[in-house]
Amino acid sequence: VAKNAGEPEFHQAVKEFLETVRPVVEKHEEQYRKLALLERLCEPERQIRFRVPWVDDNGQVQVNTGYRVQFNSAIGPYKGGLRLHPSVYFGIIKFLGFEQIFKNSLTGLPIGGGKGGSDFDPKGKSDNEVMRFCQSFMTELYKHIGADTDVPAGDIGTGAREIGFMYGQYKRITGLYEGVLTGKGLTYGGSLARTEATGYGLLYFTEELLKINNIDIAGKTAVVSGSGNVAIYAIQKANQLGVKVLTCSDSTGWIYDPDGVDVTTLQLVKEQHRARLTEYKELRPNSVYHEGRADGGVWGVKADIALPCATQNELNLDDAKALVANGVIAVCEGANMPTTLDATEYLKEQGVIFGPAKAANAGGVATSALEMSQNSERLSWTFEEVDAKLKQIMINIVHNIDAAAKEYGKEGDYAAGANIAGFLKVADAMIAQGVV
Ligand code: NDP
């Protein structure tokens, strides 16, 4: 704890992990202790922090801080997104990087865990300002990444525009046309279905998780938070599966749409106009806009399924109580660590089916790994091919975490199952590779 002082998000992620893998650790206690396996696992292999100076449209120099945490490379090159948000500091990047290790392991693909980003806020910046920031950021980051060493991707605030600017600068500096970033545009090495992958994967996961509990997803209602990349494609796939989504949100407010959230309108507002949800309300007069988290926020709306898709710790104990009071059946996490620890415990106690982020949102990074494969073979697969692989990966994850939970006496505890299944593979690889 002393080593990571002032990093509550990192503590939260590690605590949740260690508590749930206890049965595995007890089984191998002597060996793990001798090898300091858990100590090594919780210590990033490398942490990089750097200055990112750039010039705004008024000619004023601005200075941000850049981060990359290369957490664990036991099973493959570091892989994980870049978050651009004013709240970014080591505590956030380390919690995300730590979770990424086990998520990536669960995909069954050869990728290690990493994460990065900056406290830069793309909101309200011109395209030119975003480009100058991204170029400056990559001018340092390029020294630490590569197609076979560390392959960053998007996350909050980093979408197709930012990845494009960063890729251009990497190529310009190194002269290499290689798959060093994922989430690229389709004209320069991107994969079909990557944009949709996290949201679609979340719904494939939720559908299968309900199925093994003998529940049919079709005809259910859902509440979704967020209105970014994950939320938009979660809502689209939910609609395709016959689920009516009643809400979405951003950092300034939330929408209740009794007719079901309209994805085309949401895409217009968010992807094209980069606007606020007040514009959604104007375009859909039947919907209701609430400021901030007024009237209980999205979790106060009655629905069968809750899909948090915005950010960490956005669903607290009071929210969990409101969901349970409204008869929620399942909570599946699209965002990373959106549910607080006490809320997670409460949901599990109340018998709510809980799909943890590491498993439920792994479709994004899994498809990023498929993008890496396509880049390596210099081929592009069709949308249907990638989507079918994604769906199969999510189905496999559900069965693996279910089996791991059962094997270690935690039947129905999918958070424990995800941590255990993800951990076993990484632990095995770390032990095999000796003390490194
Ligand atoms: P986007 O930037 O596209 O969207 C984020 C959404 O969440 C926006 O609606 C944003 O509102 C809202 N949001 C962000 N921060 C806050 C906050 N502090 N309070 C309230 N609302 C907030 O990001 P993504 O959709 O890509 O990511 C969402 C979550 O999913 C994150 O936890 C991310 O780590 C996780 N994730 C993403 C993957 C991906 O492939 N993109 C893969 C796996 C996980 P506003 O625009 O107003 O800020």
UniProtKB/TrEMBL annotation:
One MF annotation (Gene Ontology) recorded for this entry: nucleotide binding
Binding-site residues, substrate: 79, 100, 103, 154, 368
Superkingdom of source: Bacteria
Catalytic center residues: 115
One example of a Gene Ontology biological process annotation: glutamate biosynthetic process
Any one cellular-component term (Gene Ontology): cytosol
Alphabetized Pfam families for the sequence: ELFV_dehydrog, ELFV_dehydrog_N
Annotated ranges, domain Glutamate/phenylalanine/leucine/valine/L-tryptophan dehydrogenase C-terminal: 191-434
Site annotation Important for catalysis: residues: 155
Positions with a binding annotation for NAD(+): 198, 229
Key words of the record: NAD, Nucleotide-binding, Oxidoreductase
InterPro entries: Aminoacid_DH-like_N_sf (IPR046346), Glu/Leu/Phe/Val/Trp_DH (IPR006095), Glu/Leu/Phe/Val/Trp_DH_C (IPR006096), Glu/Leu/Phe/Val/Trp_DH_dimer (IPR006097), Glu/Leu/Phe/Val_DH_AS (IPR033524), Glu_DH (IPR014362), Glu_Leu_Phe_Val_DH (IPR050724), NAD(P)-bd_dom_sf (IPR036291)
Quaternary organization: Homohexamer.
Family designation: Belongs to the Glu/Leu/Phe/Val dehydrogenases family.
NCBIfam families: PRK09414.1
The name this protein goes by in its record: Glutamate dehydrogenase
Naturally occurring in which organism (per UniProt): Eubacterium cellulosolvens (strain ATCC 43171 / JCM 9499 / 6) (Cillobacterium cellulosolvens)
